[in-house]
Amino acid sequence: MKPKLKIAIVNRSIYYSGGIEYFGYNLANWLADRGHQVLVLSRPPFEPSHQPVIPLRSEILHRHFTPPDYLATREILLNFDADLCIAMYSSAEVLFWVQALFSTGIPLLYSERNKPEIIENEWWNRKERQMLLGISDSIHVMIPEFTQSIPLSLQKRIRIIPHFSRFPTKPPPTATRQIRKILSLGRLDPQKQLHLLISAFELIHSRFPNWKVEIWGAGAVEQSLLEMIIEKKLSHCISLNGETRTPENQFQSADLFCIPSKFEGFGNTVVEAMSHSLPVVGFAECSGVNWIVQDGVNGVLAPEMTAESLAQALSKLMGDDELRQKMSDAALVRAADFDKETILTQWEEMIYECVSHKGNTALQRALAELEDPESNAAHLNLLWRLNATFEERMEYFSYPLIQYVHYKRNKWFVKWPWKIILKLWRIKNRIRKR
């Protein structure tokens, strides 16, 4: 019988119901039900009156963390005697947790929650992300496509586990509706490209007078979308309805689901829609969506990321009740692939694998390479990476590492510029080889 573990889970906020946060709540509660001791670390609420969106089990410990105070966070982890730390991120903030884990011997399970190209080019940078992957003991990604950006030397650390559906599979209601509904549900963000859905429906709504569009969610582009709907005189058939705490009601009252996103880390709402037997329309180029949706089987993927292409994809389902019913049945079958118990059991297995590195973590091994002056290519390569990070984000991550290396190399080392030291070491190695 496997031992019960002490598991620290970073859930950036328990006061907000985003996709990452929702998964974190469920993982913590499920692990606690399995008998593990769980510590949830989150940022403090913006307002003292804010309450957790989904309550944690009473036996789960909860503590706040506040970057850049990594020393206080490290003390929390050590007092808890954590067997591992699970950090779910798609941004540079994950480096704070490397700071917190520094010198503790606690393994890091890095769960990456979005498309690597977006993370490296828009939200973060490639050098830091690649370095982080190298010092992670386990690497979790959502879909197979995302493993392509990870070096071959790290492929053994990767586990591919998708998200689960938070709703059990449910066949559609038998009652027929006179008004048909296209549902879109999620954050109102430029990434979601909801303006394309509005433009697409403008092109076809005259052909389908018994159809309307309902958009649920809140976010940065809400006002611009509202202005767009008014300008195009579509208020009678397209509505913005704000956030919902009962998404299952919206899924049950819809006839198909549209997600016109540019990219997705997975596409939680796609699986949720399918669990309510809704066929899905999206873009063939959208990561996550193009893995879940089987074009022509349980949904339609528009070949081009344009309003015209999306309009054609929507029309295909809106105008064919028999095809829509066939894809509805197939959507239920696909939703069964994302069973909650199955997915979380895979997570527990990944956690046990990661815990096996306690006391001999990838970060500790990287630091051991740094401490060995005889290490050649790997040594200089890691130093070069640290140098690049030091220049770009010294105060966030690299400074404690470099400070540690400085200390190990004697105090005079601190006074020398980092690049000059690297150059001197290269010259010294050339001399030795002669």
Could you explain how this protein is built, in words?
- The structure is a single chain.
- This protein is an alpha/beta fold and 434 residues long.
- It is built from 16 helices and 13 strands.
- The chain has helices at 19-33, 70-80, 95-101, 116-123, 126-134, 194-204, 222-231, 247-252, 268-275, 289-292, 307-318, 321-335, 340-355, 362-371, 377-408, 418-433, and strands at residues 6-10, 37-42, 61-64, 84-89, 108-112, 138-141, 158-160, 180-185, 211-216, 238-240, 256-259, 280-283, 299-302.
- The strands form 2 sheets. A 7-stranded parallel sheet has the order 3-2-1-4-5-6-7, with helices on both faces.
- α3 (95-101) packs across α15.
- It is elongated and about 70 Å long.
- The model is unreliable at 373-418 (pLDDT under 50).
